[in-house]
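Colleagues,

For the teaching module next term, I've prepared a clean inverse folding example: a structure given as tokens, and then the sequence designed for it. I'd like students to try predicting residues themselves before seeing the answer, so please don't circulate the second half yet.
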């Protein structure tokens, strides 16, 4: 997909479709004024007829408008000038993308970067247009016998009256973020019988080769040598061997301490011996979406090549019941030396992450962010709207909150007060792996915090945001936008 930013002349530019915003009321957007004068008042005539009033999300497709070199004009209602919210604006772009696909258009010129939108600038608008249009191209095909229809769209020009490399960079950034999200979505959507820890490892190697990112994979034997007893206690019940996958993206000088991303990569979570009830259990193939978001970020970084160092550590395993599987009451020793009583084998994410976190110490990271579909409690607390965010460094948490806000991929902070730590007491080990019914997302983070003492750390619980259920079942690609926003701002872009 070719996306560029240009100052266009509506009369002279040749395209399959110009896309223009129409306000409710009599006020015309700048682009609508241009169109009206190029077409000698035709737009006003159409508006008078009343087929489109400018109400939010209305659309009207015009053909062969006189005075233009393009075949079509798609008018899109954006409500009352000044009332439009960023959320509504993003929704409009989604709507535009689906209209362009509906008519199988190959290219379009989008005139929505100049319209007024509170608390945003041209860079924000162009980035989001580019990201949302690129996102709309993703189709899942891997296990379908006949492929979904491929969108015809090849080329987008975003009209902007302002100019500058910043705007072109914004378009490229949006596109790279969406391309990263597509990687995350694809890995998430793949069924557990294809997307195993071994598959993830080989996809990581492939990604590394494509984008010049160093990738290493530790097998179970190597993890045993490192004494990762906690992570390995999860894979005991599976015939698929666990893998620890390590990405090292080096965009800055060797001396620059990296940001580390640690992803939960449970390629299927049955609950283990504490087996889950059957309803919607298929969705536990998405239990590797934290890991998949690390892959997605690596893909985006590989495309954009920002000057920063980022390490990605992925703990990949299945969680299944078996004669050899870990049982409730078993005590395991983590790489940190701390012992854990496994009271519930379904609280396996933290068992994987704790050893991955300890392993991450060796990179001397300036900040560590783990990303995990960790608790059902987080879905109850925040629903599908926002990720849960907890951490031991408020500055880092604040940066992530701000990044999520800008990227429209929000997170919401929950407290990590030390009082909650008491819920993890065990009579037989240094800690239990569950903290009871209350505050499940917080006690899960409390558990992780005990393995994050040596660095600034934040935890994103993405159980609610990583995938959609129901008719639109599928991975969302979140929180790649949040993570990329944070990393790029750390890189000074
Ligand atoms: N992967 C699940 C969390 C989850 C459940 C995410 C449903 C999204 C939807 C995790 O491994 C898990 O099973 N957590 C348990 C923890 C409990 C046993 C303390 C949970 O949330 O029920
Ligand atoms: Mn589980
Ligand atoms: Zn899980």
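(Answer key — instructors only)
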């Amino acid at each position: 997909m070719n996306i560029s930013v240009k100052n266009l002349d509506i009369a002279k530019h040749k395209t399959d479709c110009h896309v223009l915003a129409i306000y409710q009321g009599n006020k015309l957007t700048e682009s609508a004024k241009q169109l009206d004068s190029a077409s000698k008042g035709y737009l006003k005539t159409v508006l008078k007829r009343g087929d489109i009033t400018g109400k939010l999300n209305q659309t009207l497709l015009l053909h062969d408008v006189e005075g233009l070199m393009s075949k079509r004009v798609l008018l899109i209602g954006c409500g009352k000038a000044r009332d439009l919210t960023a959320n509504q604006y993003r929704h409009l772009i989604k709507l535009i993308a689906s209209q362009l696909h509906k008519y199988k258009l190959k290219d379009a010129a989008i005139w929505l970067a100049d319209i007024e939108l509170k608390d945003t600038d041209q860079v924000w608008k162009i980035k989001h247009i580019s990201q949302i249009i690129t996102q709309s191209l993703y189709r899942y095909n891997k296990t379908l016998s006949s492929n979904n229809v491929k969108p015809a769209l090849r080329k987008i020009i975003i009209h902007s009256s302002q100019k500058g490399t910043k705007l072109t960079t914004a378009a490229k950034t949006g596109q790279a973020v969406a391309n990263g999200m597509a990687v995350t979505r694809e890995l998430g959507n793949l069924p557990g019988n294809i997307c195993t820890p071994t598959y993830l490892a080989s996809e990581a190697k492939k990604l590394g080769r494509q984008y010049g990112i160093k990738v290493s994979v530790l097998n179970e034997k190597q993890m045993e040598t490192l004494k990762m007893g906690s992570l390995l206690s999860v894979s005991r019940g599976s015939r698929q061997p666990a893998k620890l996958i390590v990405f090292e993206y080096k965009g800055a000088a060797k001396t620059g301490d990296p940001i580390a991303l640690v992803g939960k990569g449970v390629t299927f979570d049955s609950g283990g011996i504490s087996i889950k009830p059957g309803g919607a259990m298929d969705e536990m193939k998405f239990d590797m979406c934290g890991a998949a978001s690390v892959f997605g970020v690596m893909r985006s970084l590989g495309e954009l090549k920002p000057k920063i160092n980022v390490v990605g550590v992925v703990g990949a395993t299945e969680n299944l019941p078996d004669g050899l599987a870990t049982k409730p009451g078993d005590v395991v020793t983590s790489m940190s030396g701390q012992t854990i009583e496994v009271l519930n084998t379904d609280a396996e994410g933290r068992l994987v992450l704790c050893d991955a976190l300890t392993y991450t110490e060796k990179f001397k990271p300036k900040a560590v962010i783990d990303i995990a579909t960790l608790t059902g409690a987080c879905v109850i607390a925040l629903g599908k709207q926002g990720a849960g965010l907890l951490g031991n460094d408020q500055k880092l948490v604040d940066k992530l909150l701000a990044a999520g806000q800008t990227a429209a991929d929000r997170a919401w902070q929950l407290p990590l007060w030390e009082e909650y730590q008491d819920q993890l007491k065990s009579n037989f080990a240094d800690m239990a792996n569950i903290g009871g019914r209350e505050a499940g997302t917080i006690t899960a983070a409390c558990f992780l915090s005990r393995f994050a003492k040596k660095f600034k750390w934040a935890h994103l619980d993405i159980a609610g945001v990583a995938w959609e259920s129901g008719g639109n079942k599928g991975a969302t690609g979140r929180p790649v936008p949040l993570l990329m926003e944070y990393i790029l701002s750390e890189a000074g872009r």
